[in-house]
Design goal:
172 residues, alpha/beta, Molybdenum Cofactor Biosythetic Enzyme, Chain A, 6-stranded mixed β-sheet, MoaB/Mog-like_dom_sf
């Protein structure tokens, strides 16, 4: 028996960096490649400097866009003075997905040890749009996608996945 086909979701990718351009955005490139390989679409992708208000503007725009179902950010989740993604995005969320950050750090611990304690990766939902905020390193983005997001954004994954919480009418 063939496995049912997973729903194709519409993504937006936001890279937060004060030092890189889109040409040098390895983490954004990795995420886009993984998303498209999984059968989803990237409808928008931008890079902005790590700034609370610029971040809120872009995330708010995507939350309000009925075509965007999933937003992934990369960068700004560390503990340095310039890292502001949690402060920028958390106020926009209707619900937090506490288990995402917990599981991400548990998996990361096997790779980078106690340094994972400085990761403030997190996720939530706003206006039926899933938002996942990842660290800026391509290794961290690969870990998040390969170990968590690939399954949880697959409508055929059991016993549960996040796709059932999205408006997928016309998204397939």
């Amino acid at each position: 028996m063939d496995k049912p086909k997973s729903a194709s979701l519409a993504f937006a990718i936001l890279t937060l960096s004060d030092t890189r351009s889109l040409k040098e955005d390895r983490s954004g490139d990795l995420l886009q490649q993984r998303i498209e390989t999984a059968g989803h679409q990237v409808l928008d992708r931008i890079l902005i400097k790590d700034d609370v208000y610029l971040t809120r503007r872009e995330i708010s725009r995507w939350i309000a866009d009925p075509k965007i179902q999933v937003v992934i950010t990369t960068g700004g989740t560390g503990f340095s003075g310039r890292d502001s993604t949690p402060e920028a995005v958390s106020v926009l969320l209707d619900k937090q997905i506490d288990g995402f950050g917990e599981l991400f750090r548990q998996i990361s611990y096997r790779q980078i040890g106690s340094s994972t304690i400085q990761s403030r990766a997190f996720a939530g939902m706003a206006n039926r749009t899933l938002i996942f905020c990842l660290p800026g390193s391509s290794n961290a983005c690969a870990t998040a996608w390969d170990e968590i997001l690939m399954q949880q954004l697959d409508s055929t994954h059991r016993p549960c996945n996040f796709v059932s919480h999205l408006d997928t009418h016309g998204a397939e």
